[in-house]
Design brief:
The protein is an alpha+beta fold. The chain has helices spanning 11-14, 21-33, 55-60, 72-77, 84-95, 141-173, 177-191, 195-207, 213-224; strands at residues 39-45, 50-53, 100-107, 113-124, 130-139. α6 (141-173) packs across α8.
């Protein structure tokens, strides 16, 4: 079976009504980048339980275009083990000609795990009879990694602010790190604010209050006399 080598990039053809806003944003992002390897078409035909992949979808699974005949067995083999039960339920919708939208992981021939969004809708013949399903894959692996990086960065920033606030309290009150942390937690509970928000507001308040000349002098002396 020849792999269909023509990816449709027209947004109206790519996006059926079943896609949600989050997935729509992913499609818009990919199409805006103009990278044809991130979006690809697929078709499934009830007659003969046949599949067709575009070049892009073949590459997502680690194959050179035209070198593999996609089958249901091959499809499932590439699904991440933890996602196979979910994908099996999706395939049941595919065979019934029902629209679907799925986010799951696939493992390519090189062992790399990719996160994909797969969206499909029923395909009818000229007489209105159900003949299969067609839709598209969107590889969102890179954007997912970017989101994770942003989350980890935000967590690191929050921890840094909490540590900085602790340091200020330790120096101001001559208390241990544990006691400084307990003080922040107490204010968090009293003000009904998240701990990172307490630390952020505390530091912001200090930043808006210029240190006295006496305080600055003590800091200068301590810093310059280090040995």
């Amino acid at each position: 079976m020849a792999v269909n080598s023509h990816d449709k990039t027209d947004r109206e053809k790519l996006v059926p009504d079943v896609i949600d806003e989050e997935e729509l944003s992913a499609v818009d992002l990919v199409l805006g980048l103009g990278d044809p390897q991130k979006v690809g078409r697929f078709s499934f035909f009830l007659d003969g339980d046949r599949w067709e992949w575009s070049d892009a979808v073949a590459r997502m699974h680690g194959y050179q275009p035209g070198t593999v005949e996609p089958t249901t067995e091959l499809l499932l083999r590439h699904k991440h083990p933890e996602d196979r039960e979910h994908v099996a339920a999706v395939l049941d919708r595919v065979r019934k000609g029902k629209p679907f939208s799925s986010r799951h992981r696939i493992v390519d021939t090189g062992g790399r795990t990719r996160c994909v969004v797969v969206v499909g809708d029923r395909t009818l013949d000229d007489d209105g009879n159900l003949i299969g399903t067609s839709g598209f894959y969107v590889d969102v692996t890179d954007s997912l990694h970017s989101d994770i990086t942003k989350v980890l960065s935000a967590v690191a920033d929050s921890r840094a602010q909490i540590e900085q606030a602790k340091g200020v309290l330790m120096a101001a009150y001559n208390v241990s790190a544990e006691r400084a942390f307990e003080t922040l937690v107490w204010r968090s509970q009293e003000a009904n604010l998240k701990l990172r928000e307490v630390a952020s507001r505390f530091l912001a308040a200090l930043a808006h209050q210029a240190a006295s000349l006496e305080t600055q002098s003590h800091i200068d002396q301590a810093l310059l006399t280090l040995e």
